[in-house]
Specification:
Two copies of one chain form a homodimer.
Chain A (H helix, E strand, L loop, with lengths): L1 E4 L4 E4 L9 E8 L16 E7 L5 H11 L5 E6 L2 H16 L4 E6 L17 H13 L4 H13 L1 E7 L19 E4 L10 E4 L3 H15 L7 E8 L5 H17 L3 E8 L9 E8 L2 H8 L12
Helix pairs in contact in A: 1-2, 3-4, 3-7, 5-6
């Protein structure tokens, strides 16, 4: 169960602060629902901080979140690799550190559309960091252990997205970019950032294969590896179409001899009403698999068995 | 975990048939994803049967489902009130009855847009029948008890939907109806059936209030009643907008003195890529609340705590 701290944009577990466990705090701009508040609950985030649409939350909001959930065993901040988020989360980290709270952070940069690792944006894979690090924290691990598994997830994960339409920030009132009726944009970000290539629309199987090759190559997946699959809708794409994509991804994995641990398809990290989807693959190890299957009580993460 | 019975359109629990419990079977046309296969799992459906897009499954498909999950304690069919579904599910019921399988059915007709109860369509509320009857079956209840609680859910539940756009059956290739840029259609069905009123587009709060009044009046809700709330996206509406609607519905319940047991918002029973949403209210009693909170392991129903 969740509690909204009125007027702050912060949502926390009602049982906060939980003594004896590491607290996990994440956040970012609004417009990505159910990210981030949808992942607050036992076994995932302790608190989520929401900025305005596509805008980093302010330092003081993040401070409110940290102070509300700190149970004495430390706080891990899960930051996506955007300059605004980095600046405000790190400022908050510095401030609470001086007051004696044990705090650390990880930076999610799973968007393999961008070649240089340091410039890679954090996108839908962030949800899997929340799940796995959250389960580790819930199990009573220390801050450095929770941070370590979060970093292992980040370095074994890749995502790439495709847009069939742009999206409209309500504060602006017109689409961020425009796409022709028969065009699509590969490698888009979560905020209507243009992608790395624009091309003629193709059928779902072909698009799925294109994204799959890009992520699989980046992760250097090879026969015998095992992956967790997330097909993420960008907001305006119906589930039926996500399932068509999921089927193709599962077929491709099978023909490449790569084991599928579990696959989920749904709207996990959206860009307002954008049509399109992203593919995230996470190369899993034994501990990650345990953490993925650990129970959680959040509004938006599906039951995994 | 689920098993797809290749070539039949039937998805069952991998542990089927489960001895000693009543099996729950539902289904209908495709295009409503995650309905119905997304609700197969421990604590909900035993099997889901999918027809072509917006087309009832055939009798033989339903027979396959029943025969695959019957564990000896009987089978309850959850049918939505459409002529094709009624005909095929009842034909299957008659056939298996003659072979000695204990089987019965309930008919879901939660769409309060239509005045006459016998003509009311089964829409998103079907998911709550699956949840509550499924939990009752999982708890080991007999067929007549499972049927009884399913019927109690049906007679205490109302839904109504609004469309901001039509949807396109892929087999046809053009929208089923057309709506102007500034028009909306109230009381639409799940298959692109036109609604009961077309009117000028209004803001989300006003639409939410209009739908709320219609359902609350139909259920004759009064101060002190307690309801479960489902805000259901029709496929093309982003979650952020569903949350805006959910907030308004919660405010309205509060000002009417009606208790909110739990509220969920998401894409639970869609109409392909239609933009719009539906509101379902279920007047809950103690047993229904227990069954709603009972654990389940399906891909699409959210964790409730």
């Amino acid at each position: 169960m969740l509690r909204n701290i009125e007027g702050t944009g912060v949502v926390v577990r009602t049982d906060s602060p939980v003594k004896g466990t590491v607290a996990l705090v994440s956040g970012g701009g609004s417009g990505h629902e159910p990210l981030h508040a949808g992942y607050v609950g036992k076994g995932m985030l302790s608190a989520a901080v929401a900025g305005a649409v596509f805008t980093s939350p302010a330092r003081d909001q993040i401070l409110t979140a940290i102070n509300s959930v700190n149970g004495g065993n430390g706080v891990l901040l899960v930051i996506k690799n955007y300059s605004g988020d980095l600046m405000n989360f790190k400022l908050a980290e510095q401030l609470v550190s001086t007051s004696g709270i044990k705090v650390s952070h990880v930076v999610v940069n799973d968007d393999v559309a961008i070649k240089s690792r340091e410039n890679r944006r954090g996108v839908a894979g962030t949800v899997l960091v929340h799940k796995i690090a959250g389960a580790k924290a819930e199990a009573g691990a220390e801050l450095d252990e929770v941070k370590k598994i979060a970093e292992r997830v980040i370095s074994n994960m890749g995502s790439v997205g495709v847009a069939l339409s742009s999206c409209t920030n309500p504060a602006v009132g017109k689409p961020i970019f425009t796409l022709g009726e028969n065009e699509m944009e590969i490698g888009i970000g979560m905020h209507g950032e243009t992608g790395v290539a624009r091309m003629e629309l193709q059928d779902a199987d072909k698009i799925a294969e294109m994204l799959y090759r890009r992520v699989a190559d980046d992760l250097e997946l090879k026969r015998g590896d095992e992956v967790f699959v997330m097909i993420n809708g960008m907001g305006g794409t119906p589930l039926m179409e996500l399932y068509v994509v999921a089927r193709k991804i599962c077929d491709l994995l099978e023909s490449d001899g790569i084991k599928r641990f579990r696959a989920i398809a749904g709207n996990f990290a959206t860009s307002l009403e954008m049509a399109g989807f992203s593919l995230t693959l996470l190369k899993v190890d034994v501990e990650m698999k345990q953490m993925l299957l650990a129970p959680q009580t959040t509004p938006a993460f599906p039951v995994l068995v």
